[in-house]
Amino acid sequence: MEVEEAAAARQEGLLELYGSFREMFEFFCKNTTIHGTVRLVSSGGTRGKRALWTLLLLASLAMLYWQFALMFSQFWAYPVVLTMSMHSEPKMFPAVTVCNLDPYRFEPVREHLEQLDRMAEESLSFLYGSSFSSERRFRRKERSGNGNGNENGNGGNCFYKSYSSGLDAILEWYRFHYMNIMAQVPLVTNTSQHQQHLQDMIYSCQYDGEPCRPRWVDFVHFHHPAFGSCYTFNSKGTDPFWTATKPGIPYGLSLLLRAQAQLPLLSPLAGLRVLIHRHNQSPFLEHEGFDIRPGIATAIAIRQVGTATPVSPRAGPGPAFPAVNYHGPALLSFIPCPPCCLH
């Protein structure tokens, strides 16, 4: 009588408690949605069938936990899937600009630069007692004036500035007059007049293992105020002669150059300035070029990377600030854009 009352009290409770693990297991197998578990506790099944269904249930659970282990191991390994395709096709050889770092070879300013060097030599000799060869001395011309030193040729006041050393003052004075002299060089020059200079600078020229074409028809000449005479090969990129079919140094452009420079007195530059850039692009040698010292063999390998960018959301220049191209029909690269905007 007491057992029946305890069972009735257990059934009427809010939280049903099982008297044993077997009762809980039977309740789970009869009420769960897992397929086949009801056959483990059915009264009509034999021991063989129960054992078979038990093995199937354990195997299913093992497969489930194995898949979970694989999934978490792959997640914590942070795998990266990379798909790469390679194809070979002829490419146009890039434009190559070579400068001789020798502004003295430009005839319109040769005499003025030599005169500037002689004046710098005289100033250094006066300040530091340096001796120079007599053939390069410069004789000052007598000038009429009041001798007070505070007026220029136009009668205006001169600009005075103090420096920590005499060499710094001469360097600043030299740079100022040097840029004034180089400003006299015209922006557009005749290429035919400088064909002989190119032949003096380039001893040998080969492309794709074959000699370059005669008459030097593959270059564009311009003069840089700091880097001297510059020559750009394959500037337009439309000539089939410059089509590259194979990678490697033997199939590129090979130049044997002469770096004999008559440098200004206070200039530290010596060698050649080289820039590899896109076709129809203004060669900004100050920002993108690199120097090659004389007396060594230099091999340069390049890799072209293409980047597709969406259209810029920024609006173009308004009517108050029209777009003006100060560098002719050539394109601009990313690095020189900020200096050009400042100009």
Automatic annotation (TrEMBL):
Pfam families: ASC (PF00858). Belongs to the amiloride-sensitive sodium channel (TC 1.A.6) family. One of its GO terms (molecular function) is ligand-gated sodium channel activity. Its main location: membrane. It is a multi-pass membrane protein. One of its GO terms (cellular component) is sodium channel complex. Signal peptide: none annotated. InterPro entries: ENaC. Keywords: Ion channel, Ion transport, Membrane, Sodium, Sodium channel, Sodium transport, Transmembrane, Transmembrane helix, Transport. This is Uncharacterized protein. It comes from Catharus ustulatus. It is found in: Membrane.
